[in-house]
């Protein structure tokens, strides 16, 4: 059983990917990272050596600190954060316990470089519908919560990417785009190593809605209708993205926890 200053892998796994998930701070030393460069979803790498310089960056956040085995480094960093008034726990058993329990781990091999503020920067076509909301949702929930997304005229995506050191996505002829029958959301799940039953189910819904394949899953028409409705509600693409995050949060939670639940009327048993 975890203490009030620790969280177990099972407890943390129920929070990952949700809008109120704790911030995960990875304080593994470079030698341990070299053994497995993957990270817990949306984790930040920090060094325990200069914690006094960055501890207050996490004020008013709930933080889970991860080291290799959940011992001195994460215990010490979490205690320091609590001293600074941060709500901090360390992951019991550390990275190894999470990995051995089959916890979701993100590959950093294809992760674009961050800017001076520690954010990845992405650019795509304006007026998003499905894939161009799905991909930012995936990145912010599982890769980089601070990621910046630029929506520009289709013809200018590559030039904007070049001038602003941004990573283009969901246009023809680039790495982060459709491949065969799979959409960009599928590709990001694969390349970031985020395969899981819930994300795979969501990917099928996104692919069906984005590529006019309603035969793939019964949820696709309703999902497409909601996505198109959002695109008509907002002129500002960033406002639409903010609203769309809730749609994807809801569908992800359904994919993970509620696919067996039904609803009918009347709710009570029939009288004899």
Walkthrough of the structure:
This protein is α/β, with parallel strands linked by helices and 272 residues long. 41% of the residues lie in helices and 11% in strands. It contains 11 helices and 8 strands. It has a 5-stranded parallel sheet. A 3-stranded parallel sheet has the order 7-6-8, with helices on one face. Strand 4, helix 4 and strand 5 form a beta-alpha-beta unit. Helix 6 runs parallel beside helix 8 and helix 9 (197-210) crosses helix 10. The longest helix is centred in the C-terminal third of the chain and has 22 residues, at 237-258. It is globular. The chain starts with 5 loop residues before the first strand and ends in a 14-residue tail after the last helix.
The outline comes out as: globular
Spans of 5+ residues with little confidence (pLDDT < 50)?
none
Element string (H = helix, E = strand): EHEHEHEHEHEHEHEHHHH
User: Percent of residues in helical segments?
Assistant: 40-55%
Specify the number of helices. Answer: 11
Q: Span from first to last CA?
A: 48 Å
- What average pLDDT do the residues reach? 95
For the biggest sheet, the summary is: 5 strands, parallel
Number of strands: 8
Feature tags:
about 270 residues, alpha/beta, 5-stranded parallel β-sheet, 3-stranded parallel β-sheet, 8 strands, globular
Summed up:
It is built from 11 helices and 8 strands. The chain is an alpha/beta fold and 272 residues long.
């Amino acid at each position: 059983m975890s203490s009030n200053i620790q969280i177990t892998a099972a407890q943390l796994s129920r929070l990952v990917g949700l809008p109120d998930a704790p911030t995960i701070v990875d304080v593994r030393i470079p030698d341990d990272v070299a053994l497995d460069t993957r990270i817990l979803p949306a984790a930040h790498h920090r060094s325990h050596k200069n914690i006094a310089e960055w501890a207050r960056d996490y004020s008013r956040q709930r933080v889970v600190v991860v080291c290799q085995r959940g011992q001195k480094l994460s215990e010490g960093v979490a205690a320091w954060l609590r001293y600074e008034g941060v709500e901090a726990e360390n992951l019991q058993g550390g990275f190894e316990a999470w990995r051995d329990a089959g916890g979701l781990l993100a590959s950093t091999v294809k992760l674009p470089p961050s800017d001076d503020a520690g954010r990845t920067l992405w650019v795509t076509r304006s007026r998003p519908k499905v894939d161009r909301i799905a991909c930012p949702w995936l990145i912010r929930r599982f890769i980089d919560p601070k990621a910046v997304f630029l929506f520009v005229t289709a013809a200018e995506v590559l030039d904007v990417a070049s001038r602003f050191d941004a990573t283009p996505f969901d246009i023809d002829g680039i790495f982060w785009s459709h491949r065969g029958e799979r959409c960009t959301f599928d590709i990001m799940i694969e390349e970031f190593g985020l395969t899981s039953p819930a994300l795979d189910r969501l990917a099928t819904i996104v692919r069906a809605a984005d590529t006019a394949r309603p035969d793939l899953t019964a949820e696709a028409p309703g999902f497409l209708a909601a996505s198109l409705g959002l695109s008509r509600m907002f002129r500002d693409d960033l406002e639409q993205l903010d609203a769309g995050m809730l749609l994807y949060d809801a569908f992800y939670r359904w994919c993970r926890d509620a696919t067996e639940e039904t609803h009918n009327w009347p709710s009570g048993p029939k009288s004899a």
